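Exercise (ungraded).
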Amino acid sequence: MSETIIIDPLTRIEGHLRIEIKVEKNKVVEAYSSGEMFRGIEIILRDRSPLDAPMISQRICGVCPQVHGTGSVMALDDAFGIKPAKNGRIIRNLMLGSNFLNSHILHFYLLSALDFVDITAVLDYKGMDSRLIKIKEWIKSDIDSGATNAGSPFLPRYDGDYIKDHELNMHALSSYLKAIEIKRKCHEMLAIFGGKVPHCQTLVPGGVTCIPTVDKIMAFRSRLSEIKNFVEKTYIPDVLTIAKNYPDYFIIGKGATNFMSYGGFPEDEDNSGWLFPQGVLIDGNVSDFDSEKVEEFVKHSKYSSGSGLNPFDGQTTPSPFKDDAYSWIKSPRYSRNVVEVGPLARAMVSYHANSNNSLNILLKSALNELGATPESLVSTMGRHAARALESKVLIDRMESWLDELVPEGPVANDFKIPFVSKGKGLIEGPRGSLGHWIKIENKRISNYQAVVPTTWNGSPKDDDNKPGPFEMALIGTPVADYKNPIEPARVIRSFDPCLACAIHVMDLENDSVYKFKI
Amino acid sequence: MLITRKKFLQIFAGSVAGFALSDLWLPKLLQAANVKNGKGRLPIIWFQAQNCTGCPVSFINTEYPSAEEVLIEVVTLEYNPTIMGATGDIAISVLEKAISEEEGKFILVIDGSIPVEAEGNFCNVGEINGKSITALEWVEKLASAASAVIAVGSCATWGGIPAAPPNPTKAKPAGDIIKGKPLINIPGCPPHPDWIIGTLVHVLKYGMPKLDDLKRPEMFFGPDKVVHDNCELRQYFDAGIFAKKFGEKGCLYELGCKGPIAHCDIPTRGWNSSVSWCNRAGGPCIGCTEPTFPGGTGSGLYEKLPAVQVPGLAEINANANTIGIALGGATAAAIAGHAIARAVSTKKLKKKQNESKSYSEINKKKPDIQEEKSISDKEESR
């Protein structure tokens, strides 16, 4: 007999996520992922000036605003029939790269590490690190004074198989504190060209608003080298160390095993080359990506509109009480295949394309160190490893992009808002493939659609009843203690879900009022 | 505690509810939290409704004090979904405990707007006994147990992005849902970490900060903090030099800058450890701290403010109030009045040019043309 476990809210992700699993003999046999929050940002964008789209669509997500802004402004470039200025394209890449680094470091340390690291071990700390001593005294004095909330916000937590090695716990805690500083510096770097972050101010059609000057380039480069040091000496080694302590998680959480990348970081103004290659990996075979093959299915989503449509023709008619529907997330598929997106997808596409690029070289050496096969990367730990390794590749390229900037050179090409047009912006974000589609009529937005990474990864079952990547990854996951389902939480967090992103597509017809439970 | 007659009258007149109530709730809260002489921590339940997580991400970006100092010395952060260890039932139990056992012993921080359409079912957090709980229910219950409420970010303070027309989910700000509790609004999309932490430290060590009509701390959003007045591009405005397209030098007014109606200290504080800020990076202020943000379809983020005369052409005939009304309707009328553009008339402009000339004459080395260039040099060196 199976037992149902509900994890709601799944914290330490972006947004509101509910996971329901059916467990038999301590193994997940069925899984349902549902989003719990909806705002309607595409509806809000309708009838506004197209120029507002990059600013407003960034607000879809405060963790990955930059990729929404960039995807949106690329959709405007396309619709306006213009290309970005070279400086503008490079600055967009540098800003997005800063967001990647911030997001990846935030994800591993602040969002994921508490599933592995035992913070209570600090009470036995006997070393000399003043920061760790301070934390020890803080928690200890709270416990001594009988405070029920001692150790907040890190405690309470699930019971589980946390790391037992004291030194490793203390090292990880010290890295956690350093990571908070480093992720702040990633944002400082972004703000040098973006004005502020979250939600930068400088993305415009044709480029950016911020002129690169030598002092800005210097300030950026100096922070980048500090971040590089952290990624090489701390982040990557920490991921590999934790991975070695949890070898099971190279088997747990396999997921869809098919992958897709729209291509990340354009290397020219025509979007014909990418730092992270574009491609689709299905059943072990790589093929070229074709945006026409993206279709959104809705059999188990709460929409009555047509199933299997390309986003340009996307329809969203809500049907809250539809039979067999359990999610507001649609099910995007590529040629009807379930595909995973994100750092692991980028790594797998790159690896199987057999291009001898720097990401592949790094992957091979990491696999050597772990004594692992490329197949074992398709797992919970593989996602963490792929995220850390691509950070290093990205930093190296960001350093050379800085060299390609022309100080005080032009940053934006002129544009005119067309009377009628349409455009798309396809790009890779920290969490995977992101597409923004815009239609313009009377110089105003007539339709706006975004298909985001967590829509792919967190999708419900499709018209062929094939579960989405989260659900596939959960099936077979062990659950030792039904009251403390830490294992499924680890699997889902490895995807770095972004729920605010995933659920924002809905149409309200005739202002009707719906009552529904997600 | 002694309440003076004046304060007593204030409480019952309700004229400055924020201040007056602070006399009653704050000592009780500080005593419960064992805070003595400003030493100790404020117990915080940080609830997230219809948010994008930009507010907590910005909060963690604090430079001085560091995030760990804030956690160890300023707050006891009992609940915050972005960073807390707890998941699922264990996280929900923290909220339930606050409601049932900690009445008057914590401050409720809210980011994100609260949808009321479909009985609040556009945002659900957790479930109790098989029943899904809406953000609306949580906010009502938590607020009634909290000693005070701090709304963080423009969604929680004014409704923000989700409440922009046509407001598909009937998203409301915290102040529309919660009545009868001291409330502080810290707007911004997102707010600067100093605004959030500075407000918390003020409450902890010095009591309730002075608030404007919109319940914003005046120290960060007061009438002397109009972006336009403190903008480093102000000199271009005064000299009548306007950027006509993005990436060009000049005042950003023609590109839709909302600096004249925006209240915050960002021009002097700077974003992200002060490396830059919106207008410095050439991105016109979008007025993200105001109730008018992001406006409706008729008032685009890059559309020029109405009824503002530019210098050198005619006298000014608008102030922040009239512009606010034109932009966002009745809510904007509450914006603290401030003459928008103490912009120079033709006469003043001439005078300024003369002043420049006399300055270069004193220096002798610089011909006029370089004098003008020095403005651009200053800009580039940033």
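Further reading is listed at the end of the chapter. For now, observe: Residues 3-118+163-405+424-502 of chain A form a domain with the Cytochrome-c3 Hydrogenase; chain B fold (CATH 1.10.645.10). The CA atoms of residues 288 and 485 of chain A lie 39 Å apart.
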